[in-house]
Design brief:
Structural class: alpha+beta
Helix content: 10-25%
CATH architecture of the domain at 54-151: Beta Barrel
Low-confidence stretches: 2-35, 37-41, 45-51
Oligomer: single chain
Largest sheet: 8 strands, antiparallel, barrel
Length: 153
């Protein structure tokens, strides 16, 4: 053992002996009282707001709308809804064409977009037979504008 390790070991032993010998004979050291473990409180499960008609199947059918901003024109949405998922087609007037769309609706918020080479994304709110919001073309916020639609059938 090196002289340094020996000196450290001796000092530790001396402290231990001094601590033990300074206690009066028969004395006991106080013990800490640890409270009994209590079961963890269980938090209630998060609740989802009640589904609205738009969240269930109220958006299935045909919707007629208009859009402004960078592009202006009209559109017709035809989609089916399964719970909060939307799928169907959108026919836009400018640039003319019919594209596949997919989206979601939850708690009055709607998001949908085209599936194709020119991605157009729509977001907004829906209430009853009307919805509105804003759209973007190709993910560029400057190439978009407002839109609105109402249920035709």
């Amino acid at each position: 053992m090196s002289p340094t390790k020996f000196a450290l070991s001796a000092a530790a032993a001396a402290l231990l002996i001094a601590a033990c010998s300074s206690s009066p004979k028969g004395a006991t050291l106080p013990t800490a009282t640890v409270p009994a473990a209590t079961p963890a409180a269980t938090a209630p499960a998060p609740t989802r707001p009640a589904a609205t008609a738009a969240d269930t199947a109220g958006l299935s059918g045909t919707w007629s709308g208009q859009y402004g901003g960078s592009y202006q024109g009209t559109f017709t949405l035809t989609w089916t809804q399964s719970e909060s998922n939307l799928a169907g087609t959108i026919r836009i007037s400018d640039p003319a064409g019919t594209l596949s769309i997919h989206g979601t609706v939850e708690n009055g918020a709607i998001r949908f977009g085209t599936v194709g080479s020119m991605a157009i994304t729509y977001s907004g709110t829906v209430s009853g037979n009307s919805m509105s919001g804003s759209y973007q073309v190709g993910g560029d916020a400057s190439s978009g504008g407002p839109w609105s639609a109402s249920k035709a059938s």
